[in-house]
Amino acid sequence: MVLVTRKIQQHLLKAFRFGQIFGGLPFKWNQNSGKAEMRSTAQQRLWRLNLVFAFIYALYVLLRCLQVSLDSDSTYFQKINMRVMAAYFSLSIVMHLTIIMNRESIPSFINGFLGFSKYIEDRFSRFDSKPSLVSTASGFVMQAVWVSINCITTLMTLNAFLRPDSKEQVTSLFVDENSISITIRLVSACLMAFIEYMYHASTFMITLSALSYMAPILTIINELSCKTFRVTKDELRTPLNRVKMYQVLRVLMIAFNEIYGTLVIPCFKFLGIVIVVFCTYAAIRMEGIQALALGFLGYVMSLTLVVIFGMLAEFHFRSQNALEEIKLNGCSQDFLLTNKWLLFYKYCHSLTPLKVVLRSCYFVDRCMVLNMVNIILENTTTFLIVSHR
What residues does 29 pair with on adjacent strands? Predict the structure, then answer.
């Protein structure tokens, strides 16, 4: 496996299996055909029912955040905690909506880029080639995402068990702060575990499928250049093959933007920054399991933002370099004189770099990543200085 390594395959399959446990996803992985496909009608009904509970809980947290913010008796730390929870569960709504809007497109998209990667490997990879650095690094990133999100689930469930009277818990509506029984604690923990399961079933599928796409596609872009190729034969870099493969990459990028660029990436950027700022404050100012859970959440979210957007920015940068080489070398004057393809020459010069477009307004580049890091640092520092309670 050169483009889609064994580690990438394993974690993509884990996302499918995780979503099949209690009906967290409307699609599954068929081991016989080796493709993603929709689940049965009964299983999709179970998924819809689970989503109803997940949406109700998220809306409950948002309403409790509004109530606590308007309540003069609430402490400042309670307000900060509820704002973090509001942003956290708002992101869950975004994840669920992305699955709902693209429940039929996501399996087709996954099958498409996996099939294209396999075609490149079977036809153009060298017999002595090793996995590319991008694919190897993506495998470790996917592993880190898997472990980190499971740790967040554990901490959130433990927090619900130890603090069932916290405002984001449903049990806080009828619990007596002076005498909290073990039954109430177990109910609070089980409810949070189920909500976290639904939340992270969607999160695993969206995040791990996106990383599974980015790793081989970025490698293929590198292989189109005579300067950065490592794992493929020279046959891939002939003028005709270069243009054909680049055209397929454009189609896959359009599909990627329709699924991920419309809702989840813009909202993930905004809500992720909000979560990092508030969680950093909570980790420094608060105490106990609450500070530990929120601090770990902020740490994971900050790393995820930088890594994900850093990889997304590479599409524009690397495809721009590869495209310049295609235009200069692939359509040289000798090639034109030999083949008499003026139309082909014009077509090559009409190609544009691959971009991760956010709602058709702007695209992700390296400057955006640096600007995002600057926003996080400035707002976190400012918030810590101003909110010194």
Answer: 36
What is the C-alpha to C-alpha distance for residues 2 and 14, in angstroms, rounded to an integer? 20
Sign of CA dihedral 164, 71, 277, 371: positive
DSSP category for residue 256: H
pLDDT tens, position by position, 370-384: 999 999 999 999 988
Q: Give just the sign of the alpha carbon dihedral 384, 386, 387, 389.
A: positive
Q: Which of 153, 161, 195 is nearest to 180 (CA)?
A: 161
Q: Provide the 10 A C-beta neighbour count for residue 356.
A: 23
Closest CA to 2 of 95, 125, 175: 125
Structure tokens at 51: 């989503």
**Gap between the Cα atoms of 209 and 14, Å rounded:** 11
At 331, give phi and psi (nearest 5°): -120, 45
Q: Which tens digits make up the pLDDT trace of 67-82?
A: 999 988 888 888 988 9
What is the DSSP code string of 100-122?
Answer: HHTTTHHHHHHHHHHHHHHHHHH
Q: How far apart are CA 49 and CA 157, in angstroms?
A: 22
The domain segmentation of the chain, as residue ranges, is 6-386
Using DSSP bridges, classify how beta strands 27-30 and 35-38 pair: parallel, antiparallel or unpaired.
Answer: antiparallel
Give Cα 194 distance to the centre of its chain.
Answer: 21
